[in-house]
Design goal:
There is one protein chain. By secondary structure, this protein is an alpha+beta fold. Helices cover 35% and strands 12% of the residues. The strands form three sheets. A six-stranded antiparallel β-sheet has the order 1-8-5-10-4-2. A three-stranded antiparallel β-sheet has the order 7-6-9, with no helix packed on it. α1 crosses α3 and α2 packs antiparallel against α5. The longest helix is centred in the middle third of the chain and has 15 residues. The model has no long low-confidence stretch (mean pLDDT 96).
Length: 340
């Protein structure tokens, strides 16, 4: 039987936050707690509702072992010092299966009743290939403002190519830039929300706070850092429906380090895995010859099925590829927690 939600909601008043905190502090102290499916779902809802990236939040807890009060203060800091009470109420309603406040219900109904963003042809393409491009998901002006935020964060200039290589970007091409106001505004795009709602068949979705990425052109002093083709899900059955997505912040040609994927493999993942020779490690199979680059313009958004091998590609253009990662998921999202 699942443990009841704790009454220790702290100063922020968020259910389950104390359990998320306690589980990671226990892991830091050498006594990890096995995560249940409910814990996994609740963790995702709480983190997304509070606008927190998973990896940096976990790293903060494991590296600093703060008190719970200090953790709450850190969350407030990441949110600019305050959190709209409606966001907290939505989290708590979701975790306790209570109706949302009227204002939230109204917003979700507006998304439900909005004109479709993905056409029948888009949906057919999705079913066949496992990815779809949402054109003009945000305005070009908005995308360029977000690109400017990336340049500012990195301390580089788009007009000085030598500056693109002066210091490490982060983890490969991934940057820990999450909370700039323009990035937060992109996460509220009604076109992105509606596209995800069409794929998930519900507007009651939670948006993730994910990294940005800067992939500069290769040169004598710099080679592509990855990530190359990979999966972010377990390759052991059962396989559940899941999505991932990214927003192009600058025009990106096919050879400009574009997002790549292996179209259609989501439809044959089980048969493909079953057909591999005994002893083969699926993640080490070279699928580069099947990868297709997805070129797009600033403001376009790519959604792909999580069962597609996907990644970035070497940039052989003359300008960086700059993107913001973003996903949406429903309350009843499922995932195989046994990693393989």
């Amino acid at each position: 039987m699942e443990a009841a939600l704790s009454n220790n909601v702290g100063s922020l008043g968020v259910f389950h936050l104390d359990r998320f905190y306690a589980n990671h502090i226990a892991a830091r102290n050498g006594t990890p707690v096995e995560k249940s499916e409910r814990d996994w779902r609740f963790d995702n809802i709480v983190l997304s509702g509070l606008g927190l990236p998973l990896e940096s939040t976990v790293n903060y807890l494991l590296q600093t072992a703060p008190t719970f009060a200090a953790f709450e203060n850190w969350i407030l800091e990441k949110n600019g010092g305050s959190i709209d009470p409606l966001r907290i109420e939505r989290i708590n309603c979701a975790l306790t299966e209570k109706p949302y406040p009227a204002e939230i219900e109204k917003h979700l109904l507006e998304i439900e009743h909005a004109d479709d963003v993905l056409s029948p042809a888009d949906l057919d393409h999705w079913e066949k290939n496992g990815y779809v491009v949402v054109r003009e998901a945000v305005s070009r002006k908005q995308a360029k403002a977000s690109e400017a935020a990336v340049w500012e964060f990195l301390g580089m200039s788009p007009d000085e190519p030598s500056s693109w290589y002066e210091k490490p970007i982060g983890l490969g091409i991934m940057m820990d830039l999450y909370h700039h106001p323009t990035l937060a505004e992109n996460r509220t795009s009604s076109r992105i929300h509606k596209a995800y709602a069409q794929l998930w068949k519900t507007a009651d979705l939670w948006v993730t706070t994910d990294r940005t990425s800067f992939n500069p052109p290769e040169c004598e002093r710099y080679s592509f850092q990855g990530p190359r083709l990979h999966w972010d899900m377990s390759l052991a059955p059962p396989f559940y429906f899941g999505t991932q997505g990214l927003l192009y912040l600058c025009d990106t040609a096919a050879d400009q380090g574009a997002f790549v994927c292996v179209p259609g493999l989501h439809n044959e993942i089980e048969a493909w895995l079953a057909g591999l020779p005994a002893g083969t490690i699926p993640r080490e199979v070279d699928l580069d010859h099947l990868a297709v680059p997805i070129a797009a313009r600033a403001g376009d958004f790519v959604i792909w099925h999580q069962a597609l091998p996907h990644g970035s590609s070497p940039n052989r253009g003359n300008y960086p590829r700059i993107v913001q990662y973003m996903n949406m998921f429903p309350l009843d999202q499922k995932e195989n927690l046994k990693w393989a």
